[in-house]
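Record copied across here:
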Amino acid sequence: MDFASILSSEITKKRKEAPSTSITTPAEAPAPAKKYLKRSELEAQRQAEYAARQQELAEQRAQKAAEKRRAEEEAARKREEAREKQRRLAEERRLREEELGGKKKDDDEGNREEGAGAQEEMTDEEAIAKLRELGQPAKLFGESTAGRVKRCKRAIAAREAAIDPLDSPLPLISEEEMRVDIANVNKDPELVYRQLDAWFRLVMKEWKTALDERPMAVKESFQGRKAADAMQQAEEYMKPLFRHFKHRDLKANVFEKVCEIVVEAQARRYVKANDVYLKLSIGNAAWPIGVTMVGIHERSAREKLHENQKDGAAHIMSDEVTRKFLQSIKRCLSFCQTRWPPEDPLQLMG
């Protein structure tokens, strides 16, 4: 056979096999993806999602309702248990009170005896008079005599505790007797305490009077209000000092220096008084300025830095109360040189 006959036979065979192998049924072919969707299909899809969401919310609401119902049942059970416990405790308390009835009667009798003892110490008339003097109600509704006496004693104790040192001065002395003599510091300290108390009270009184006599425009100005605040602050800070004067328990070194300050101020030597104040507040000890320890060798006179603290005492200005009334003393000196100016202008503080 030649080539042409072989080729034609092969082509014929292929044509017969091609329809059976290439043709597929519609069921076997995959469905083509839609490129566009209808509005009805989109609406159906949205409604299906909405229905699923509503069903989920309904399930959540049902679950929350069940939890709330269980919580209410638990709370009701606890309330019932609490009421039962209260009833049981009330019953036990009633039984206990019945058992202790006799003891309470004995206690009442003891209280009446105690009230009678208090009444013997202070009569009802004395308590009423003292309460009226203190500005308290003389009688209260349902108050017994013993209770009134106790209330009177409490009012007296509260008044004594609230007494201001500025309102309870030491016995007054004249201006001539206010002159402090430095020789009396050790001889007659009680007299010196009285003189210091009277002199500082005189200074505070003059200071307050000078501020009150200012014109209204000056009082309402910024500087005027600042000066009034400084005076009030100094008056408040001086209260511990007046307590020391009253109880005569000022420290020895502070007492001596304060006496020197007052002596110089009364002589109108304010520069010297300021020097004594500086010596009291700062002292003449060496101050560590800069580097105090470099290397292994000590610097010269380094031992003087802490020579005043060999006894373990702290600096006098480290005490807050002492620092405040010392600063108030300095403010009093500043006022004194304006109220009683010195004859020598060189004695004015800067």
The two ends are 144 Å apart (CA to CA).
